[in-house]
Structure formats: structure tokens, C-alpha cells
Write a structure and sequence with these properties.
- The complex is a heterodimer.
- Chain A is built from 17 helices and 22 strands.
- By secondary structure, chain A is an alpha/beta fold.
- Chain A has 2 domains: 235 residues, Rossmann fold (3-Layer(aba) Sandwich); 168 residues, 3-Layer(aba) Sandwich (Rossmann fold).
- By secondary structure, chain B is an all-alpha fold.
- Chain B has a domain of 197 residues.
- Helices cover 76% and strands 1% of the residues of chain B.
- In chain B, helix 1 packs parallel to helix 12 and helix 2 runs parallel beside helix 7.
- The chains are: A alpha/beta, B mainly alpha.
Chain lengths: 502, 314
């Protein structure tokens, strides 16, 4: 057997005490396309960041062509022949194709001399030809399609003599024709002995293109399969299958009348057309779908932080006018956003100031804050959510992920919401805090709150929702009652398969 | 808990004050007349105009913005007030109208920045020129000096209250009110939150645009107040008044330890920062340092202070 180009053995990594990778094995052989799969948050990107020198593993070894190696900087990985094509391309639109190819490392006469324009242009044509593609090397990169820009990145990787190329969701933004071209290029690379790591959610592509599939689940290693010896079903099971029995507390609330009704929401960018759904009192409606399916965007539309063209929102039968988040909050709608650092918290402010942020009205009289009421409110919230903090004045940035998330939740519990939207409420949160968050959700539904939960973790959706709504590319592609929902049918609806239940 | 952190925090907070005290001690040793009551009042009076503007600037910078138009606002508001008075309008009403004009100029900045989505630096750079131009248009490029004798107006720049120069009284009154606004009101909370994380503030349902328009209006009004004081002091409105005042105001805010990226800072620091600049000006004069060198020294002190501040953060 040939020596793998890279091999990662028993890799462990944790951030702030949360284990994100535990004992993962992964290797890439020359001339193979190796798919890396797993749900969002399973640890794929962390593993790749270790491979490319952005993060350093806590435990485990990495071998490049059989030799043990540690990367402490991305440059070192690059030197070892590992290149990444990110989902967001590294192309400077106002520079030419040639200039993009030699970005940061131009060919010059002497060390600091004049650029060898002709030679660079010549080389660019050569590299592109080697991949079997034709692009004018003088054209501005911004004028090219996304697919063509991606080709430039691949050619750039080839020009640095990369032997392993990691492609992160390379087809996410491509058209059918461009995907075909990409696959041809990948086959070219394969033949020349390059190893490809292919990260994608698209099962079909993977079975068409790849040689082996490795699956991560919850930061653990779920196994590696030869494509010829496995099936769609087996891979899905490896990705999501696990005991979900005790992980989720039993749902106790009985759904009542319709609390939130959303009718014909249409946005300005053409992502959604006439999206309609409803949530009952005390019900948890799970929103499933792949990344980029538009779940978060739909919630932003409902919450007024994204521009809508038409559509109505009713709470308890009353039609609301929501033009911005301020209106939504006043109407009793809370939104626990996905990205707590960017959208949920002011990290430089204290626990007290953050918790008060959504509740300034009730903690003040005529615009003047009431110290006592604020301290009391914050104290009770810390106690109710069991936030581990040294006090009300602790700065948010020094809290752990789980405790930060509790503060975001607390902010919105304070408004006593009638509708609460939770977007990936347990992402980057450890098991203990996860469970507490589930309990809080149960408690709220018992009080009649209508909850919408977006989650990319299928077991979480199945374990917590009363109903599951599946979104695929902006349209609602299935609504399942709890009893009839299972991972296979949801995955199918999320990847575009038909089968819509009532 | 976490004593190291809070000790460091305290040091960071009193740093500017320590600097001021040190400066005063050194200057007194070099020239004992520095610490005379007369001179102290003198320093405070010189500081008051810059301090008023810098108080407003603190709010703006806390939201992550900047206002370069304060000097022009000062000039236009001062000229309008003088013009109204020479036109026969009741002086008190004229001053109120001047303040209103300043607030409106600030509100205009705020609307351009929020609704027009123009970066604060660019927006206020443009209005700095616009307001200055309007001042020249209004005054025809000449000082307005035919201001009728009036006690209330004279009081603003030249009066005393129990021996304390009235501009100093005004400055401290503004300080107390603004300290309260920043610390104890929902508006103040909003200012810190917007500067700390604008997106999170918006998604928390804060009226971010309203808060921003508010801080620029406040700064405009305080600049107008400074303009009225200056006009009263000279008993004449100069069309070129307040040129480069934005730099002293920004320097005072930064010397006081407020972060230019927004979200962190305090108004007490700004008061201290303004005093440092004032003491430095006064002290260098007392020591007979040539005015050209004074500028060099002032710039060097600002640079040094900010570099020390950055080091503490690291």
C-alpha cells in the first residue's frame, strides 16, 4: 500500500473546555478524492483547520508522507503541500487573473526587483491549461463567474505544488455546468496524483465523485467507508444515528391555540416566496434544513431585521406591523440569534448590562434607570438560568460559551415573550448547558410560549420538536408531525427529495 | 475575585488623573505662580470651551463615531446668535435659538450618517466645510460686533458666580448632567451598547439610528453652547472661530481613556483630558516656551498618553 499524503491519527482538540474533536483519524492517499462528512458542528472545519495549520491539535499526530510533523502556522502547511479552497473565495476582483494567480508571491527579477509580467502571464496560461480550462489571463477576476474564480484558486493551489487540496463546499455556489467542469478538473488532479479532501453535504455528488467517505459525529470519529461498499442510508445513519433517548427531556406541554401565524412572507432578494406557517401556544416547531437553506433568513424576515416585500404576521390573532426588531420586541417576539458574539452580546459590557439591554423599558422610569430593579432582575435571571459567573459585573467576554448563551436567552426571557425564536441554541455549548437549555424550553412552553427552534443537529430537532418543518432552498419542503418524523425522511426533504406530508 | 483584573482596570481608569496631577506638580515646581487661585480659574476658563465640545464628542466616540464638524458648528451657532441679537431679537431667545441651531446641525450629521449610510468621518468632514461655508455666507466673512449690551449674554462668557468664572460653572453643570445621562439613563445604556456591538444592539430592539442621531444632536448643541460662550467673551462673532477645535476635543476624549473604536470610556476621563491640554497650554505659556514649540510638546504628550494606554490594554 502507498504511503498516505497526509495522515491524522487520534486527533483531539478542545476550545475553552468544550471537546470539539475526540480521537479522529483521517488520511488522504495520492490520487484519491476523500469525502469528509458530518452534520454542522460535527468538527469538520476544526479538523481541516488543524490540517492546514490554523489550529494546533491538543493530542494526536499528523504525518505528511509518513513523516511526523506539527504545524504552528498556515504557512508551514502550505509549504508541506496542503492547500485549501475556501467556500468564500480569496479572489481580489479588481485585479487581473494573472495578478490573482501570483498574489503575494510575484515572480521578479532579483529579490525585490521588477515583476516578470510576461513570464507570470505565460505561467498562468500554463497552469490553467494543465487543469484543462481556458480563461483569459488579462481579464479582471471580478468579471468572471464564481465557477471560474474557483478555477483560479485551484490553479493557484497547483502552482504552489500542492499535493493535498481541501475543498470546502466547492459546489455550493456553482451552476450545474460549472459543477461538471469542476468535476473534470478534480479528475485531472486525481490523475496527476493529487489528493483531494472534499467537504460537502450533497450526498449525490459524493457518491459520484469520491473514493472514500469519512464521517464525523459530535467531534468523534464515526468511521471511514469505501464508496463502493456503502450506501446513502448507511452514511446518513453514521452522521446522525445515536441514542437520542435520554439526551432530551420529555416534552410535557400540550400545544394549544395558534399563537403565531405567518402568512405569505416574501423578501426583497427573492429568497422566499409566500412562506406560511404557524406555531401553537406551548408548541416547539423545529426548523430543519441544510446550511444555506434560508432558515435564519426567514426568521430575520419575521423579526424585522431583513427587508420584506409582503406578508403578514399575527400573534394571538392580532395582526402586527413589524418594520424592525424594535417593533418585534414590543410585540413580544424574542430572537436568540445564531451568532451570539456578533449578534447577541456586547462582549465588552457586563452580565448586568447585557441582560438589561432588551429590558431597558421595564427597568427604568421616564428614561432613568432604576438601580434596584435592575439588580433584582439580573440577579433573578442569573439564578433562574444558573449562570456561572463571579457576579453581575463580570464582563461577558470572560464567560464560557454555555454561560454566554444563557445570557442571550436571559435577555429575551426578560421580555416575557409570547413567541421565542431560537437559532442554533446549543451550538458550541457543552452537554450540561445543552440539557439546561432544553429544560428552559420545556418550561417556557408550559407557560404557553410558542417556540421556533432552528437546528442543524437532526437529533436535537427530533428530540425537542412537536412538529418539524423542513426548508430546502428557501421553500418549505415538508412538515412532519413528531410521530412521523425520522432522520431519513427529514434528510431527504432537506436535500431536495419530494415526499411532502400534510 | 479576579483582583488582578480589577486592579489593572482601576489603574487604567485613574491613569489620566495621575498624569494630570504629575503635570501640575512639575509645573508648580518650575513656576510656583501656577498654583495661584487666579491662575487656576484662568486655566479652567480656558478649558471650558474645549471641555463642553469634548463632552459631546465623548458620546459620539462611545458610539464608535467621530464628529469633525464641531468647530464649524460652534462658529455658525455663535454667528447666528450674534446676528439674531444685533437684529433685535431678545438675547435669551437668541441664545436658545443658537442652541437649537446647533442641535439641528448635529441632527443633520446624525441623519446623514444613519439614514444616508455615510461613514461619520466623511459625513462630518463634509458638514465641517458646509457649516463653515454657511458661516462665511451669513457673516459675509466679517465679524459681527454690533451686539447690543445685555447682562445675560455678557454673563455667559465674562460673568462670575461667587467668584467662579461663569463658563466654568456652565462646564461643571454640563458635566454633572451629562455624567448622569451617560450613567443612569436608558439613552446612556444605548450609547455604550451601540458602540460595543451595533448589530447586537439593533437585534436587541434598540433604536440604534435614534441613539446615533441623539449623540450628534447633543454634540451640536454643546458646540453651539461653546460658540455662544466664545462670542460673549469676545463680544463679537468671528467667522473663523473654532477652527481646528475638533482636534483638541478628540484629543481630550482620547487622553481621557475613551476608546476610539467605541463602547468603552467615560466622561470623567474627558474632563481630565481637557484639563491636561489646558494645563499644558497654560504651563508652557508661564514657562515662556515659544508658541511654535508648544504645539510640538502638546502633540508629543498626546502621542505618549495614547501609547501608554494601548500598552495597558495589551
Amino acid at each position: 500500500m502507498t504511503v498516505p499524503l497526509v495522515e491524522m491519527k487520534d486527533v483531539h482538540k478542545s476550545f475553552y473546555g468544550v471537546h470539539v474533536l475526540q480521537g479522529v483519524n483521517f488520511d488522504v492517499r495520492p490520487g484519491e478524492v476523500h469525502a469528509l462528512m458530518g452534520e454542522n458542528g460535527a468538527g469538520k472545519s476544526t479538523l481541516m483547520k488543524i490540517l492546514t495549520g490554523i489550529h494546533t491539535n491538543d493530542k494526536g499526530t499528523i504525518y505528511v508522507k509518513g513523516e511526523e510533523i506539527t504545524f504552528s502556522h498556515p504557512k508551514e502547511a502550505e509549504k508541506a503541500g496542503i492547500a485549501v479552497i475556501h467556500q468564500e473565495l480569496n479572489i481580489i476582483p479588481n485585479l487581473s487573473v494573472t495578478e490573482n494567480m501570483f498574489l503575494g508571491k510575484p515572480l521578479t527579477y532579483g529579490k525585490w526587483g521588477i515583476n516578470k509580467q510576461k513570464e507570470m502571464r505565460q505561467k498562468t496560461v500554463e497552469y490553467l491549461q494543465r487543469l484543462g480550462i481556458e480563461i483569459n489571463p488579462d481579464i479582471q477576476a471580478g468579471k468572471l463567474s464564481v465557477g471560474q474564480q474557483q478555477m483560479i484558486e485551484i490553479a493557484r493551489a497547483v502552482s504552489t505544488n500542492a499535493e493535498v487540496i481541501v475543498m470546502d463546499e466547492p459546489t455550493a455556489a456553482l451552476t450545474e455546468v460549472e459543477i461538471e467542469t469542476l468535476f473534470e478538473v478534480i479528475n485531472h488532479l486525481k490523475q496527476s496524483g493529487t489528493g483531494i479532501v472534499y467537504i460537502s453535504h450533497r450526498m449525490e455528488e459524493i457518491f459520484q465523485l469520491c473514493d472514500r467517505i469519512s464521517v464525523l459525529r459530535d467531534g468523534g470519529y464515526a468511521g471511514t467507508k469505501e464508496v463502493g461498499e456503502t450506501s446513502y442510508e448507511e452514511i446518513v445513519k453514521m452522521m446522525v444515528g445515536r441514542e437520542i433517548g435520554q439526551k432530551y427531556p420529555p416534552r410535557t406541554a400540550e400545544p394549544g391555540d395558534v399563537r403565531l401565524r405567518v402568512e405569505n412572507l416574501t423578501d426583497a432578494e427573492g429568497l422566499f416566496e409566500n412562506a406560511s406557517f404557524e406555531v401553537r401556544r406551548g408548541e416547539i416547531l423545529g426548523f430543519a434544513g441544510l446550511m444555506g437553506a434560508g432558515r435564519t433568513e426567514l426568521m430575520e424576515l419575521l423579526f424585522g431585521s431583513r427587508k420584506k416585500v409582503s406578508g403578514e404576521v399575527y400573534v394571538d390573532g392580532e395582526r402586527l406591523r413589524i418594520r424592525n426588531p424594535h417593533d418585534a420586541r414590543k410585540a413580544g417576539i424574542g430572537f436568540i440569534t445564531e451568532d451570539r458574539k456578533e449578534e447577541g452580546l456586547v462582549l465588552n459590557l457586563s452580565v448586568r448590562e447585557n441582560l438589561a439591554l432588551t429590558n431597558l423599558n421595564k427597568l427604568s422610569d421616564k428614561g432613568i434607570m432604576s438601580n434596584n430593579r435592575e439588580k433584582e432582575f439580573v440577579g433573578s435571571m442569573i439564578e433562574r438560568l444558573r449562570v456561572k459567573t463571579s457576579g453581575q459585573e463580570q464582563k461577558l467576554k470572560t464567560l464560557s460559551g454555555g454561560n454566554q448563551q444563557k445570557i442571550v436567552i436571559g435577555k429575551w426571557l426578560g421580555i416575557e415573550p409570547s413567541v421565542l425564536i431560537l437559532d442554533e441554541p446549543t451550538r458550541g455549548v457543552d452537554i450540561g448547558a445543552k440539557k439546561e437549555i432544553y429544560h428552559i424550553m420545556n418550561e417556557l412552553t408550559e407557560q404557553g410560549v410558542a417556540i421556533i427552534m432552528i437546528s442543524s443537529e437532526l437529533p436535537e430537532v427530533l428530540g425537542m420538536s412537536d412538529r418539524v418543518l423542513v426548508l430546502h432552498e428557501g421553500s418549505i419542503n415538508g412538515v412532519f408531525a413528531r410521530e412521523e418524523a425520522d432522520q431519513e425522511s427529514i434528510m431527504q426533504a432537506a436535500t431536495g427529495g419530494g415526499l411532502t406530508n400534510e | 475575585m479576579n483582583n488582578g483584573g480589577s486592579f489593572k482596570g482601576t489603574l487604567q481608569k485613574i491613569g489620566p488623573l495621575l498624569g494630570l496631577v504629575l503635570l501640575v506638580i512639575v509645573l508648580t515646581m518650575l513656576n510656583p505662580s501656577f498654583l495661584s487661585l487666579n491662575n487656576i480659574f484662568n486655566v479652567f476658563r480656558q478649558v471650558s470651551i474645549n471641555a463642553l465640545i469634548a463632552f459631546g464628542m465623548t458620546f459620539v466616540i462611545l458610539t464608535g463615531g467621530i464628529d469633525l464638524s464641531v468647530g464649524s458648528t460652534l462658529a455658525l451657532a455663535g454667528a447666528l446668535t450674534a446676528g439674531f441679537m444685533s437684529g433685535g431679537i431678545d438675547p435669551v431667545l437668541a441664545m436658545l435659538l443658537g442652541l437649537l441651531a446647533g442641535a439641528l446641525m448635529g441632527a443633520f450629521n446624525g441623519v446623514v450618517i444613519t439614514k444616508g449610510k455615510v461613514a461619520p468621518f466623511i459625513a462630518t468632514l463634509a458638514t465641517m466645510t458646509i457649516f463653515r461655508g454657511l458661516t462665511l455666507v451669513y457673516t459675509d466673512g466679517r465679524p459681527i460686533s454690533d451686539i447690543p449690551q445685555n447682562f445675560s449674554f455678557e454673563m455667559m462668557g465674562q460673568g462670575y458666580l461667587f467668584m467662579i468664572p461663569f463658563p466654568v460653572v456652565t462646564m461643571f453643570a454640563a458635566y454633572v448632567i451629562l455624567y448622569f445621562v451617560l450613567k443612569k439613563t436608558t439613552f446612556g445604556r444605548g450609547v455604550y451598547a451601540v458602540g460595543g456591538n451595533e448589530e447586537a444592539s439593533r437585534l436587541s430592539g434598540l433604536r440604534v439610528d435614534g441613539i446615533k442621531i441623539g449623540v450628534y444632536s447633543l454634540t451640536g448643541m454643546l458646540s453651539a453652547l461653546a460658540g455662544i460662550i466664545l462670542t460673549s467673551r469676545l463680544y463679537s462673532a468671528q467667522p473663523t472661530a473654532g477652527t481646528m477645535y475638533e482636534l483638541d476635543a478628540i484629543a481630550a476624549v482620547v487622553l481621557g481613556g475613551t476608546s476610539l473604536t467605541g463602547g468603552r470610556g467615560w466622561i470623567f476621563g474627558t474632563l481630565v483630558g481637557a484639563l491636561i491640554i489646558g494645563v499644558l497650554n497654560n504651563g508652557l505659556n508661564l514657562l515662556n516656551v515659544a508658541s511654535f514649540y508648544q504645539q510640538v510638546v502638546k502633540g508629543a504628550v498626546i502621542l505618549l498618553a495614547v501609547m501608554l494606554d494601548r500598552k495597558k490594554e495589551a
